[in-house]
Amino acid sequence: MRIILASTSPRRRKLLILLGIPFDIIPPDVDESIYISNGDPIDYCCDLSKLKAENVGQHNPSDLVIGADTIVVLKNEILEKPADRTEAEEMLEKLSGQTHHVYTGVSILNINESINITFYERTEVIFEKLAKEDIQFYIDNFPPYDKAGSYGIQDWSAVFIKEINGCFNNVVGFPLSKFFKTLRALKVDVKINDKLLGQQN
Predict the structure, then answer these.
(1) Mean of the per-residue pLDDT values for the chain?
(2) Which residues of 72-110 are buried (b: 16+ CB within 10 A; e: fewer)?
């Protein structure tokens, strides 16, 4: 069974490579801006992950399609990707010294095999109090415009983190352990290729 990652995220690609499972990438044609949120973070990330999986799955009904969406939530406010520098600065200033949660919704879909499951993972992240010059340095050197909450925990913004409770990879953008456990529970016949294990390029 061919596996398709319906995502343009380089971070999700790198994480999935760690499993040693061969997969292809087909970007979904989904305009996330038209999604109307009911304010619930679980519904938000799960609904968008479903939309991505369904968009690619309808053209690839015999393949196992994976859709995912990651958001940052601070005091019931959903922080998606920043539109510009000003918004990125505002987001990081909001997160400074605060506790927030990162949610990732994951959808696994195979139309022909009647596989259609969606789950989510939540991780608690506590930020240090951020100096304005560190925020400026980060934005200048690590463009955050494709990252929910305006930061990527796998890069220099790791210095912002005081504490993390839960799955680290979920904050990067894909809850790898829970995904693999779900595949096993679904009895999906995945072939691990030892030549792919750990490759990052």
Answers:
(1) 92
(2) bbbeeebbbbbeeeebbbebbebbbeeebbbbbbbbbbb
Compute and round to an integer the Cα radius of gyration of the chain: 17
Q: What residues pair up with 3 in beta bridges, in sequence order? A: 64
**What average pLDDT does range 179-199 have in this prediction?**
77
Rounded to an integer, what distance in angstroms lies between the CA atom of residue 63 and that of residue 49?
Answer: 16
196 three-state secondary structure: coil
CA dist 50 and 69 (Å) reads 9
- Encoded tokens for 83: 């539109």
Is pLDDT at 87 greater than 60 in this prediction?
A: yes
CB atoms within 10 A of CB 33: 7
The C-alpha angle 143, 178, 159, rounded to 5 degrees, equals 35
Known catalytic residues are: 69
Reported residue count of the chain is: 201
Question: What pLDDT score was predicted for residue 80?
Answer: 86
Q: In degrees, to the nearest 5, what angle opens at C-alpha 124 toward C-alphas 40 and 14? A: 95
